[in-house]
From TrEMBL:
Its EC number is 4.2.3.1. It comes from Planktotalea frisia. This is Threonine synthase. It catalyses: O-phospho-L-homoserine + H2O = L-threonine + phosphate. Signal peptide: none annotated. Belongs to the threonine synthase family.
Length: 462
């Protein structure tokens, strides 16, 4: 299995190289050259299998000879052993044709744990074998950062630096990042919004002297392995509802487009997915783009679903690559337009290709709060604001096909928003009960590449 860049001008890599490399050297994102297909019988055989068994079947063809079967199975087993639910991604029925996929039973209470816990295992194995060290730098709007820190804290061969937008993550998210005591963990509160954090991260990758000097690696969804691990729960839940003999649709609360793009990969592999619904908050650039073909930045507005306060949706580039028949030159043109003018326009053909798979919807702030209240009253389910957006958008797209909405985070990560909507403050699991008493350790930084690079270099040499 080979991996190519969405901008068509970077070296072709193996799975291991793509996993440890992060951003392609032409600024693009790695994707598999071809997407392996599973037959209806292969998918049918997943019925009754454990999450871990399904994970192995789904991901194995992408991994090539990076790991033996036994090594890869070991990574998968260890990755999900600490999850607080035996089925890992349980389904709860909300209404006759509407199901909620709970993705918040991992150690940091968000869907990011599904991929990050596995990547932690795979990095550890690959780095032990090569004797190399890496410096992970990640950008987060709150959940990727805590999941990455949890997966890599204390690992000898890794330092992990997380850039988060100062004052724009929930207090629980911030404390998850600032309270770990391991010396290889470095939380950085940066001026600006998540897009600024992600832009500086990509600048670091595009500065080859810095990148090669510190051994930079990425665990944002820039990293193909992140997307791959997220493909699995599309299979496990669809199969539990009757796939491949019954179609399903998914609604996905969306920001950086990694999670919903994993659904697209599942569909390309043969899972009978009817529609993939993009659900956005008031930062609705993706929804506007689906309606008008114009991807136009308008300024990120802070919301009660802060993890989705994103306008430069990194993985949309991967979706565009497939919508343009894998034409890297076309994608480079669009991304250059975005960098120069803050917008690009998608051609009729490419829009047609996107609309074959995706629909979209948005929910504003008042609607999000109202949905959290209504979900509790009507179903007894306490939703986080991101999941509430998914549920409300899904309700406008439910037809004869079962709809599965992804619940991407635990409500206790966003207690203020949930309490304001329901009158009840959701509590953290007992293992996190003292989170608010733990000492915080964080570095403040400006939105400035050189200042950030200096922080990384200084910490590595101390
Ligand atoms: C809780 C939560 N929901 C939804 C999203 C959106 O996911 P994606 O960026 O993969 O679209 C994120 C962050 O990305 C998140 O943290
Ligand atoms: N919502 C994310 C944003 C980063 O997304 P990623 O999937 O690219 O890591 C977060 O919580 O940080």
């Amino acid at each position: 299995m080979k991996y190519v860049s969405t901008r068509g001008a970077a070296p072709v890599l193996t799975f291991e190289e793509a996993m440890l490399t992060g951003l392609a050297r032409d600024g693009g994102l790695y994707v598999p050259e071809t997407i392996p297909e599973l037959s209806a019988d292969d998918i049918r055989a997943m019925s009754g299998a454990s999450y871990e068994e399904i994970a192995f079947k789904v991901m194995r063809p992408f991994v090539g000879d990076t790991f033996t079967d036994e090594e890869f199975k070991g990574c998968i087993t260890r990755a999900y052993a600490g999850f607080g639910h035996t089925t890992r991604a349980p389904l709860v029925q909300l209404a006759p044709n509407h199901f909620l996929m709970e993705l918040f039973h991992g150690p940091t209470l968000a869907f990011k744990d599904f991929a990050m816990q596995l990547i932690g295992q795979m990095f550890e194995l690959a780095l032990k074998r090569s004797g190399k060290r890496v410096t992970i730098v990640g950008a987060t709007s709150g959940d990727t950062g805590s999941a990455a820190i949890e997966a890599f804290r204390g690992l000898d061969a890794v330092d992990v630096f997380i850039l988060y937008p100062h004052g724009r993550v929930s207090e629980v998210q911030r404390r998850q990042m600032t309270t770990p005591t391991e010396s290889n963990v470095h939380a950085i509160a940066m001026d600006g919004d998540f897009d600024d954090c992600q832009a500086r991260l990509k600048d670091m990758f595009n500065d080859f002297e810095f990148r090669d000097g510190v051994g930079l690696a990425g665990v944002n969804s820039i990293n193909w392995a992140r997307v791959l691990a997220q493909v699995v729960y599309y299979f496990s839940t669809a199969v539990s509802l009757g796939a491949p003999d019954r179609k399903v649709s998914f609604t996905v609360p969306t920001g950086n487009f990694g999670d919903i793009f994993a659904g697209f990969i599942a569909k390309q592999m043969g899972l009978p997915i009817e529609r993939l619904i993009i659900a956005t908050n008031q930062n609705d650039i993706l929804h506007r783009c689906m309606e008008t073909a114009a991807y136009t930045k308008s300024g990120v507005k802070p919301s009660i679903s802060p993890s989705m306060d994103i306008e430069v949706s990194s993985n949309f580039e991967r979706a565009l690559f497939f919508a343009h028949d894998q034409d890297g030159t076309a994608i480079k043109g669009l991304m250059d337009d975005l960098a120069a003018n803050g917008s690009f326009t998608i051609s009729g053909n490419a829009m047609g290709a996107l609309q074959q798979h995706y629909d979209s919807g948005m929910l504003d702030e008042a609607g999000t709060a109202a949905m959290i209240t209504r979900a509790l009253n009507e179903t007894g389910e306490v939703l986080c604001p991101h999941s509430a957006i998914g549920v409300a958008v899904a309700e406008n797209h439910i037809g004869d096909t079962p709809m599965i909405t992804l619940a991407t985070a635990h409500p206790a990560k966003f207690p203020d928003a949930v309490e304001a909507a329901t009158g009840e403050r959701p509590s953290l699991p007992p293992r996190m009960a003292d989170l608010f008493e733990r000492e915080e350790r964080v570095t403040r930084a400006p939105n400035d590449l050189k200042a950030l690079q200096d922080i990384v270099r200084e910490r590595l040499s101390s």
